[in-house]
Amino acid sequence: MFMSTYILTSMFPNGLNYEQSELFRTLLTERRKFAFIASEFEKMHEKTEKYFQFFLKMFRESGISFDEAYVVDGRMTVAEAQKALTEADVVWLSGGDTPVEFAYLKKYGLDTILKQHEGVVIGMSAGSINMAKSAICTLSCGHAKQEVYEGLGFVDFSVEPHFVREKLSEELLELSKKYLIYGLCDNSIIVSKDGKVSVYGEVYCIKDGQMTESR
Questions:
Q1: Which of 25, 122, 151, 203 would staple 132 via disulfide (CB 3.0–4.6 Å)?
Q2: 27-85 pLDDT per residue, tens
Q3: What b/e string do you get for 79-103 counting C-beta neighbours within 10 Å, with b at 16 or more?
Q4: CA nearest 126: which of 159, 156, 154, 90?
Q5: Cβ–Cβ contacts within 10 Å for residue 126, how many?
Q6: pLDDT of residue 176
Q7: SS3 for 207?
Q8: Taking a C-beta distance cutoff of 8 angstroms, is the pair 99, 129 a contact?
Q9: Which residues pair with residue 72 across a beta bridge?
């Protein structure tokens, strides 16, 4: 696999604080092209545009701007989507319906492009789940059914976004007997770079039926 920088997030309801802004400024060294991959390619374009602008504004307010930024979804042909992704320095994998997003990645051949990407890939919520070797969709995270499938394989652990420590579920504890899962709270970040994993903010390691705070 090609070396890239992988950033897994849950959500930033109030934008980035100073420390988070500093981290992103350090990690996003190339800022020519920003590709925002939608979770739903064929519908809800208005919602996609809303979140696209929301996160561009979040970056701008943190002193990060891109020469060019665009949405990758069904308004592009397969060839256009693949080209747009190949040329991007920074790729954003949106939140939304996790299995639906992954199905579109495969339908458009973007999973292969992502695995060859040498820039920065940022996942948020569903996007973070799909970056894992084993993508785990849980009932406790609001999915309609529990589902585990082979994800993009960028990291060897799985994540539960929007995690709340006090609401640790038996479902997660049971799954953790087979999978290493990180409970990723909102406003927290996991970075995987050069084979090293670093956590920022409130992140919990759930393993072998036990939970500990990651530092």
A1: 151
A2: 999 999 999 999 999 999 999 999 999 999 999 999 999 999 999 999 999 999 999 99
A3: eebbebbeebbbbbbbbbbbbebbe
A4: 159
A5: 24
A6: 97
A7: strand
A8: no
A9: 37
**What is the C-alpha separation between 55 and 92, in angstroms, rounded?**
10
Residue type, 50: K
CA distance 206 to 123: 20
- 139 Cβ neighbours under 8 A, 6+ residues apart: 145, 146, 169, 171
Tell me the Cα Rg of the chain: 16
Q: How far apart are CA 206 and CA 183, in angstroms?
A: 7
Which helix (DSSP H) or strand (DSSP E) does residue 122 occupy? strand 120-124
Q: How far apart are the first and last CA of the chain?
A: 27
Which residues share a beta bridge with 156?
A: none
Q: Please answer whether residues 34 and 68 qualify as being in contact, where contact means their C-beta atoms are separated by less than 8 angstroms.
A: yes
Nearest alpha-carbon partner for 130 in 97, 107, 81: 97
The amino acid that residue 70 corresponds to is: Y
- The residue type at 98: T
**If we measure between CA atoms, which residue out of 83, 95, 14, 1 comes closest to residue 47?**
95
The rounded distance, in Å, linking the Cα atoms of 34 and 159 is 24
Following CA atoms 58, 5, 204, 214 in sequence, which dihedral angle do they give, to the nearest 10 degrees? -110
How big is the chain, counted in residues? 215
